[in-house]
Every structure is written in structure tokens, then in C-alpha cells.
Write a structure and sequence with these properties.
Elements: E1 7-8, E2 13-14, E3 19-20, E4 25-26, E5 31-32, E6 37-38, E7 43-44, E8 48-50, E9 55-56, E10 61-64, E11 78-80, E12 85-86, E13 91-93, E14 102-104, E15 109-110, E16 115-116, E17 121-122, E18 127-128, E19 133-134, E20 139-140, E21 145-146, E22 151-152, E23 157-158, E24 163-164, E25 169-170, E26 173-174, E27 178-181, E28 186-190, H1 192-197, H2 202-216, H3 222-232, H4 237-248
Parallel strand pairs: 1-4, 2-5, 3-6, 4-7, 5-8, 6-9, 7-10, 8-11, 9-12, 10-13, 11-14, 12-15, 13-16, 14-17, 15-18, 16-19, 17-20, 18-21, 19-22, 20-23, 21-24, 22-25, 23-26, 24-27
Antiparallel strand pairs: 27-28
Helix pairs in contact: 2-3
């Protein structure tokens, strides 16, 4: 159903079984996937691709112009995956620094009034809480939770299965499976409850706890902590995910001093 009171540009590509409510705005150079729902007063701006069965609620703006002085009107894009939920008054900016633009992975739930800046990449199945603000060029791994009113600064990276507590300010890289809280950001343990609910074995959860005792609780450098993890903990996907993330970010992670020994 496409309401006659909605504005749908003649060049927009609309899939089957799409519902576009009155007073929604669908710009040129857009795609709306099969079964998607666009609520009243929601806007899908040029350069945006919306996946199948995604719901965009009232007042949300998906694919707004990048908020960056480097953007001079060049091509910019926003790609939203399948089965996402974008709640009221969310703003997602298009990306221009990366050819793929801003990317929101499948199954992401973005709560009301959140803001996601240009060139961010959310891998999918994450929850972005009410009022979360994300600057540009941020990466968020799969299945992570950013609680309400948390703030993520430019260029930060957040690993898989992370829980960021409400109101926390992140300026740096948060490794997989941890809980981060307080200001300044502090390691608060591992995300064991959520991991257990989603099928991680007790052995893997124990391995994660051991790994982060080396990183955060032994008073050694991050370099030495990685050496201990490789020596003390059996190889597994969770162990490798931790090692790859920390090494891939030059040993720079939040809540520990920078030490490139």
C-alpha cells in the first residue's frame, strides 16, 4: 500500500508488498525492499537503500546529508539491511569516505532519537539505545548493545557481543565480549549473561574471562597480555576474535594505558 498522500519520487525503486504511509517522503535514487514499512513523516533520502521487511518509524530520516565539512556534494550512500527496525526521530547520515557509504547490517534495532553519523558500519543484530549518538567512521561488531544516551566518538571501533552501559562515553576501541561502563570508560567485566543466553558454551565464556583478566587485571602491558592469552588459553574462535581485534587496532583499547612494547 502506497498512500496517495506520501511523496514517492518517480525514480524510486519500490519492492513488492511495501507499505508507505501518508506524509512519508521517498527521495530520488532510493530503493525500498520487499515488505518494508515506511511510517508517516519518515524520510528516505537520495542514495539510500532499504532492505526487505525493515520498518522505519515516524519522523526518522534515513540517508540524511553527511555532517562533515569534507563532503562537498559528491556521491554518498546509506545501505540499511533486511529486518531492521528504525524507531522515531532517528537520524542516519549517508557516508562518502567509503564507497559503500554508511552501512546498517541485517537485524539491527535502532531506538528513538539515536543519531548515526557518516560512514559508520554496524555489522548487524545490534541494539542501539534511545538517544545514542555516534560520530562518523565508527564500526560496531555483531550483536552488540549500546545502551541509552551512550556517546561514541569519531573513528572508534566496538567489537562483537559488547555491552556499553547507558551514558558511557567511548573514545577508542572496545574489544569483543566485554561490558564497558562509567566515565571515563572502565572495564566492567565480560558480557557473560547475554553470551550464555545466545548459546556460548561455559568453556568459551570461561576463556573470555581468563583472557580479560590478563588484559585488564594483571597490571601488565597489552602486548604481554596477548602473549599470556596465547600461552594459557586453548585456541578457539572466541580467543582468536579477541586477539585479532586487539592486534588489528595496534594494541590500543579503551580502559588501559597505551603501551606498544
Amino acid at each position: 500500500m502506497i498512500s496517495s498522500s506520501a511523496h514517492v519520487d518517480s525514480t524510486a525503486r519500490i519492492g513488492s508488498n511495501v507499505t508507505i504511509h501518508p506524509f512519508a517522503f521517498i527521495d530520488s535514487d532510493t530503493e525500498i525492499g520487499e515488505g518494508a514499512v515506511i511510517m508517516p513523516y519518515a524520510s528516505v533520502m537520495r542514495g539510500t537503500r532499504v532492505g526487505a521487511r525493515t520498518i522505519i518509524y515516524n519522523g526518522a530520516i534515513v540517508g540524511a546529508d553527511p555532517q562533515d565539512f569534507r563532503w562537498k556534494g559528491q556521491d554518498s550512500y546509506c545501505v540499511v539491511g533486511d529486518d531492521c527496525v528504525i524507531r522515531e526521530n532517528v537520524i542516519i547520515n549517508r557516508g562518502f569516505a567509503n564507497p559503500e557509504g554508511t552501512r546498517i547490517g541485517d537485524g539491527t534495532f535502532i531506538m528513538a532519537t539515536a543519531h548515526i553519523g557518516h560512514d559508520c558500519h554496524l555489522q548487524g543484530k545490534s541494539v542501539i539505545g534511545n538517544g545514542v549518538t555516534m560520530a562518523g567512521n565508527i564500526e560496531v561488531g555483531a550483536c552488540s548493545i549500546l545502551s541509552s544516551n551512550s556517546v561514541v566518538h569519531e573513528g572508534s571501533k566496538i567489537g562483537d557481543w559488547v555491552l556499553v552501559k547507558g551514558g558511557c562515553r567511548i573514545s577508542g576501541n572496545v574489544p569483543p565480549y566485554v561490558i564497558i561502563a562509567h566515565n571515563p570508560a572502565t572495564y566492567f567485566g565480560i558480557n557473560a549473561h547475554v553470551m550464555r543466553k545466545h548459546g556460548f558454551s561455559d568453556e568459551h565464556i570461561d576463556d573470555v574471562a581468563k583472557a580479560y583478566r590478563h588484559v585488564y587485571q594483571c597490571g601488565t602491558s597489552v602486548f604481554n597480555a596477548l602473549q599470556r592469552i596465547e600461552a594459557d588459553i586453548d585456541d578457539s574462535p572466541v580467543r582468536q576474535n579477541i586477539i585479532d581485534f586487539i592486534r588489528g587496532n595496534n594494541l590500543r583499547i579503551v580502559a588501559v594505558p597505551v603501551d606498544l612494547e
